[in-house]
Amino acid sequence: MKLIVGLGNPESRYIGTRHNIGFSAVEKIAASFGANFSKGKGKSLEAKITHRGEQVIIIKPMTYMNLSGHAVVAAMNFYKIVRNDILIICDDLNLPSGTIRLRAKGSAGGQNGLKHIIESLGSEEFARLRIGIRVDETSLTSFSSFVLGKFSENEKVVMEKILPITSDAALDFTINGIEHAMNNYNKPVT
User: Where along this sequence does the record place binding of tRNA?
Assistant: First the structure.
């Protein structure tokens, strides 16, 4: 059994924001299997799919980004899933838009959802798939305003290209593991 977690914020005002691209990614995965989200274990919404014989639990923490670790730990404990079998999908301001990056482990890199998951698990050793949201090299005056802002029309076009590839990468992880997914998907998408 695998666990895929899409990070985001739960209120409707955050729909379509850069910070909620993790939610968009897992919604795309669930929809491709005809699965719907319902109340999950702890403070999350969950969908269940079977991919090539592998059971996959997909969750969207309803705790707000900065407390995502609570929902991850609750799902891991309930389903008895180990760290090697989880994949966290989130936005990454350090990656250019049009890029996804899978890693087997690592720091939070400034992403507060990942930071809380690391604190909650007591380890950086879990897979993550980061979706680049940086649109240019100009310095930002407010990181929070940018990540909580809605995608521009041009950015939406890029995200529509990325989401199916993100879905494929996540599903590759569930069957073949993080190393295989990294080898196949760590490259610019656009």
Answer: 14, 64, 66, 112
